[in-house]
């Protein structure tokens, strides 16, 4: 009897000490995302909430936060309680591992397509009639062309624009020195570096700055649909794959007991209903049936990858993005 009492006391103490038993699973999560995704996730979140209710019977809520991808990564590292992040660049997610130990080293292997549920590419938004005749990356370095992009120092969107220009030139010339010179001319033509993708769209569309906005194809097509014939989209014949990596922020999810909800949310992004919402917001998706249904809204283009042309994200981080790297060498502050 005495041994049974001791065992019962020990089990009770264990239950009381268990963090999972001390509180109910979280019913809310925070998705920290990049600047121009707010409308997309405003549509996805209610669909996920309905899906979760149908499959588990639980009422939940998904909150969202948006700013430049790199700025968001810094905010999470400084304590923003993100249960999940849906960024627009691998380096911003990897920073959560390298600088904060918030996620495991194998985070890219946890979901399909290297944890990128959808993709896009840098495209051009020009004014009606395309008065500067902008069709390719070569047209962007001509004298007198005013470019608007987000600041590549703070925005993944802007960084993709810079990397796409460099990758185009390197693929064409096979000469790193010529690619660097091309990137310098490209950045010299930028008339304003905004802090994020949406601010850049506002500068181009509402403030009338520049001759061409370079942004994600999804943002360009969505803006053209919203503002009508005063702008038009130019998809260059060559561009760079823009991935949108996602991950549970393990350290936060475990502290808040939100892991099941957070993982369910990210897995939902790969389902046909979520892929359909993404395609309606002009993202290119991996689901074959959804992709085929929305294929007509995209112009054909040859898509280079960071791995093929630039040697992978780790090399990009060292060669281009590190302090004193190629981006610092060619960057012309406005």
UniProtKB/TrEMBL annotation:
Organism: Caulobacter mirabilis
Matching Gene3D superfamilies: Periplasmic binding protein-like II
Annotated signal sequence range: 1-22
The protein's name in its UniProt record: Thiosulfate transporter subunit
Main localisation: periplasm
GO biological process: sulfate transmembrane transport
A GO term for molecular function: molecular carrier activity
Protein's cellular compartments: Periplasm
Family classification: Belongs to the prokaryotic sulfate-binding protein family.
GO cellular component terms, semicolon-separated: periplasmic space
